Amino acid sequence: MNTDIAKVRLSCPQDAIAVVPHLLGFHPSPGSLAIIAFADRQNTGVLRYDIPPASHAAALNEHLIRCLASQCADEVILIGYGPAVQVTPALTSTREALDGLLTIREILRVTNGRWWSLMCENPACCLPEGSPCDIASTVPAAQFTVHGSAPLSSVGHPPPPARLDRHPHQRQPHRDRHVPAWAARPHQRRGHRRAASRP
Q1: Where are the domains of the chain?
Q2: Which stretch of DSSP H or E encloses residue 163?
Q3: pLDDT band at 4 (very low <50, low <70, confident <90, very high)
């Protein structure tokens, strides 16, 4: 793949959904969550895992916090794939685990070709019945495609759960970079921080 891809800008929720398959190399299957991590407003990685049973959620969230800390992440976008009954509780659990540690820019659910925001309550902006998810028509998807990105179908053998998958164009963290206070002490939470409602 061409490594000269231009910087991709996410200007709406659909853009965030569109880049996940290109960052992972495959389309997430129903029953999975993806977390796009940012540090200083630059993408540092994307994490994908299967939604665990409720009894395992706490342990997985602790692992997620450690992964995000290793990337010095200060912002994330959470995206869940599948029916609301399965995805919404998982997104809520992850949100609660990360709340106060970093900024959650957006929380999205993708089901049957439509997306919902769990942070936006404005029906004029985010339709109650969900918004069509035409990711192929987005500018970010077109940028990746032009440079040779062709995500595989979700059918097959995706990476193991809770693995941080790096895209070749993602920035590598520097060892001498400033580490956010929360990342240095992942079990000590700071005060609540208002999350942005849009990517």
Answers
A1: 15-184
A2: strand 163-165
A3: very low
